TrEMBL record:
The keyword Metal-binding applies. Coiled coil: none annotated. Heme binds at C403. Keywords: Heme, Iron, Metal-binding. The lineage of its organism: Bacteria, Bacillati, Actinomycetota, Actinomycetes, Streptosporangiales. This is Cytochrome P450. Signal peptide: none annotated. Belongs to the cytochrome P450 family. PANTHER family: CYTOCHROME P450, CYTOCHROME P450 12A4, MITOCHONDRIAL-RELATED. One of its GO terms (molecular function) is heme binding. Its cofactor is heme.
Amino acid sequence: MSIDAGPRPVHDAKTLSLRHLPRLLRDPLRAFEEVGREAGGEIARVNLGPFRPYLITHPDHLQYVLRDNVANYRREGMMWKPLSRLTGEGSDVDPSWPVKRKVFQTLLSGPSVTGFADEMTATIADAVDDLARRAGAGGPGGAGRPVDAFAEMTRVVYRTIIRVLVGDRISLSGIDELGQVMVTATTSSFRSRMLMPFVPLSVPLPGDRMFNRCVQAVDDLVYPIVRKARRDGADGRDVVSMMIRARDDAGRGVDDKAVRDGVVGLFVASTDTTVSALSFLWAALDAHPDVRARLYDEIDTVVGTDKPGFEHLPKLVYTKLFLHEVLRVYSVAWITPRTVAADDVIDGVRIRAGSTVAISPYLTHRLPGVWPEPEVFDPERFAADRTRHRFAYLAFGGGPNQCAGRVFFFLEAPLILATLLSRFRPVLENTAEVRPRVDITLKPREPVMIRLRPVER
Ligand code: HEM
């Protein structure tokens, strides 16, 4: 697909009609896919009555919004506001954002993350042992009982990420409790706000009370950790200590609320996405025996009966291609909205100040002119010798606000897979198609039940 047809006369965006609204409420993702198909990569305005976002899916347009004129497309507005009760204000209206960003970038940079190798490896090994016990795997009778992949991956991912980011400032039971509360906050209790962002917060919606209770529970868990870290001198390399020690360019530190928001914001960004990705991949493995065979073969060859560690990661090449393809198809960060600061024109289309721009990796990853045969699951598209538009693959966003945790993810997720798959061959119990449903991130609509069959050697 090309939009390079010379300058176009300035015009309003094509409007896609309100007939999508009933479907949007019944099956939001399917309606969204239809809207994406109808727009066909062109900028369109989606008429949802009181809410008329611009839909921008073409990589050239995305490059402009996410990179070339990024200051005009702010990470704030009605789609971010409801979440701010959990994570603090969006980056573009948060005075403490420069401090938070500096901490995230330092903490999550390659050298710093590789310093977590021993902690990460040990925590994942323990979490997988625990999962195996819960699944009754490896004992007499072989494959044990089916377990819910989402719940299990929540436990593994929370333990790994929070142990690595917060050290021993939080107990294992505290981590599990935080996991449950955050999952409730970011799923069922948030869905109506996600689907009707135009309803003011002063108007109650189903799920609000539960969401507020979750926010309170998160506060009750996180504030004591922040206060204790401050009292103890905050000299650790964990995120709480780093937030407390950090200073802006004028030498100012941040208060407890900003530390709490930074820590919780990082938890949401890092855990919710990773859990979703690691829940969907069982369905992809089940549906594609050839991919599964290659993945198992790589893990058997590279790890075998060793204890998986960071030293194995450079050789887990296909595992990483597989994870990229999972994230192309199940683009868990399915929408990353922006608010337009000043009137603008993109490729001849007038964009009005104050409106919302819906950027959807999920739709961009399905554009036929951008991705050959987008419906085919093929990890090889990410092989090193294949090229694509820089803004065609947006699983981790693009431009200066792209995901700060990408390096972390590609250490953690392959290590979790290597630890699990070097011991077990998970078998999917429900082999029907696993459809995603929309929450803050995409989640499996039905439980994905897996059984852990021990590897036969
Ligand atoms: C499957 C895994 C993940 C996916 C798909 C993902 C996706 C994304 C996306 C799309 C954004 C940009 C949002 C926007 O443009 O508005 C983002 C931002 C961010 N992510 Fe991730 N992420 C993942 C894992 C992680 C992990 C493991 C961490 C931390 C350990 C993390 C930390 C962050 C942070 C701090 C930001 C904000 C960056 C900034 O604005 O400077 N993410 N992520």
